[in-house]
Amino acid sequence: MTKLQAEVSRGEFKGTPLFPHKHKEDGRYVASLSRFEEDYVRVDTIEELATLVETGYGARMSNNAIPNAPSLIVSSNISNSAVRSLVPSEHLPASIRERDLESDSVAKIRKEQTYLRAHLLKGKKVAKCSLCGEEFPFDLLVAAHIKKRSKCEDFEKLDFDNIATLMCKTGCDDFFEKGYVVVIEGEITQAKRKGLTSRVQSLIDQLVGNTVPNWEGSKRYYEWHQKAHYKKIA
């Protein structure tokens, strides 16, 4: 059984152990990279919570024996030797199967996106977008599927290191998903050329010529995306 534990760091109850807080409203645990509720990720089991703690997420923790309200404890202050053996990929397959066996729901999509992003972030709160190369805080990055998820074979959905990559929400994710840009031999190339506003063209021009850092492992998926969105002009 996975156990997570921390301690009260100051005040009257300093040193008192803290444990994952199970919310009465929905019976779930909370992981987060910030103290803002909008960033909370609600999970069903301690194992899922431990997976996110291992990748840098904090956890809301409490102790019913003291009057202190639940607190978000950062991952570095949560101790448990069992956590060290956990990685997001241990729970990604279950999340993906849930989506494949049942109709997709916002909750299931968010859970899979959370684990994929945690897997790619590896505990970092700031990381680079694979297209523009700029650094962004975690909440402005998404784990973008390079090959459209609905077109993936089962083994491709489980290829966590290569099927998805971090892209920023400030334009790159949309430009890629909607086929405005593609990646050819590791280099970003413009695909759509008609009906663009001057502002959109300017933003695309800033991406064209950049090289993606994950070309070697994700080549087959970028090539699928290229064939789906780009026809070379003779």
Tell me about this structure.
- With 234 residues, the protein is an alpha+beta fold.
- It is built from eight helices and twelve strands.
- Strands 1, 2, 3, 4, 5 and 6 form a six-stranded antiparallel beta sheet that branches. It has a two-stranded antiparallel sheet with strand order 7-8. Strands 9-10 form a two-stranded antiparallel ribbon.
- A hairpin with a 2-residue loop joins strand 11 (181-184) and strand 12.
Q: How far apart lie the N and C ends? A: 62 Å
Range of strand content: 15-25%
Average pLDDT over all residues: 86
For the secondary structure, the number of strands is: 12
- Overall 3D form: elongated
Organism: Vibrio breoganii
Protein name: HNH endonuclease
Features:
234 residues, alpha+beta, 6-stranded antiparallel sheet, two-stranded antiparallel sheet, 12 strands, 32% helix, 19% strand, elongated, HNH endonuclease
How would you summarize this macromolecular structure in one to three sentences?
The chain is of the alpha+beta class and 234 residues long. It contains 8 helices and 12 strands.
